[in-house]
What does this fold into?
Amino acid sequence: MSKVRMGIIGCGGISGGHIRGIMDSPDMEIGALCDIVPERLEDKRLMCGASQDICYDNHIALMESGNVDAVSICTPNNAHFHIAMDAVERGIPFAVEKPMCFDTGEAEKLAAAALDKKLPNMVCFSYRFKAAARFMRDLITSGELGRIYHVKGEYYQAWGLPNARNGQTAPLVWRFVKEITGSGALGDLGCHMLDLCRFITGREFTSLAADMDTFITKRKLLGSDGEGTVDVDDYINIAARMQDSVAANVAITRYAYGRGNYQWVEVYGENGALRYTLEDEDKIEINIGNSPMRAGRVWADVKPPQRYRVSQMQCFADIVNGKGDGLAADVSDGLAVQRVLDGAIMAAEKGVRIEL
It folds into this structure.
């Protein structure tokens, strides 16, 4: 079997993870690179040792070059839909960064088009590939916990804080600009946590209420002493229901002092409880078969079995080659999460509970 030749569209920070995953996979190789910013394109060209003749400043030219079998879409959020649709029209399998689209309307169109063509695809909800999350999912879906009552999750980072970056406050990068990103902490971090809750429980969100706000409304413009307006959320708290009357609470912020990339998810059922955490590494704590009331230290740290350790880009190679494990997110998952994102924004703006 020949290797899948991957095209990287968008050579910003997140593309580095895609490139490393491709280079580590025995079933993939870099086919082409694309970015509209020459410096970013050159940086990733050097990273993977690519030649100049497979570098492009136009994604259509990359797709029609004959150098790629599939693409990774690593651009800012407002470009995801149009680039993915261009891939669908050309029958090119795609992996697209999250959130899949800018809003539910775009997500519905992309999902329908990709599913109609039966085109291999993946939405990069990367925490589905953490061993502890996959192990936790199996424990829950196998019925070990019995009826599920509560799911609680947090995703905390600190980079939005004043002076958080070596004494400097982050400038007005694209993640603070609504017309580019769609939403702030919600779409950047929250979509991961919402998908994790869906993934580990096997349940969909059915209704929610939300509170969101912006702490710093002005930030310095890039390369200028002037200031621009932050028009997206810095934090969001969601109180939700999932299928089977599961109560879900999700808290997201970029203002958690001391946190780098911190996540936790707790699930409480009638026969036990689980806790997934991620900072430097992912791990799981289990409390099953003990007294429901705490009596001594009954939570046990458990190392996920080796079979749960997988690579996101290797999983995409498997999907393209028709042997995926069915656990990666696809356009249907991207659409489901997009509906929750849009519902959360509406709930927060209107101060009402939204039925999904």
